[in-house]
Amino acid sequence: MLTRRHFVISSAALFSAPIATPGFADPISDRSKWASWDRRVTPANYDPATSNPWGLHRRFLPQLVQANDGLTPGDIHVDAVARYLYHIRGDGTAMRYGVAIARGSLYEPGTYTIRRKAKWPTWRPTEAMIERDPHLYEQHAEGMDGGPRNPLGSRAFYLFVGRRDTYLRIHGTPSPRSIGGRASSGCVRMVMAHIIGLYDQVATGSTAYLYASEGA
Predict the structure, then answer these.
(1) What is the pTM of this model?
(2) Got the DSSP string for 136-179?
(3) Three-class SS of residue 11?
(4) Per-residue pLDDT tens for 88-129?
């Protein structure tokens, strides 16, 4: 049973502000490739409850669970301690998914609105990310096109406070073996095939609750 006590989230801040990079064209996502990319990251004969070519612990596979009374259908809750994301359904249940959360102190609990979502999104590291880990991010300062190697993976939900983009994301990852751990530079990671299945179930305007992680 889902309890607020156990809801702890880690979507921390992968992003702060986008970097303006004079002389470079904005990254793109080739819509004509989306369907083939979806097939590429989805296992053959895919069954969300059992398909596991990523070698995840079974508890991180999508599972239908009972939700507590009083939770709003359509909302998302992320438990940063157990590494679960819950999507609340209208029949008193929730779909539960395994996630990875931010490493170290790169985590920002809070209540957010999903004001945008995107298929095969583009990505650009922030100045803070480049300053913190130049060996990882400086090479991508001009941005990265959408695709299976993009850090945001197959889908992304964009978290806002009011109309302000927080640059927090819930997104797919090209590193599925990170699920269950603390790996990201801020955002909540999901298996790409899992977030593809979740994507159409989540409406813009829904609320995402990011609960405190261990030691918070």
Answers:
(1) 0.83
(2) HHGGGTT-B-SSTTSTTTTEEEEEEETTEEEEEEEEEES-GGGT
(3) coil
(4) 999 999 999 999 987 666 678 899 999 999 999 998 766 676
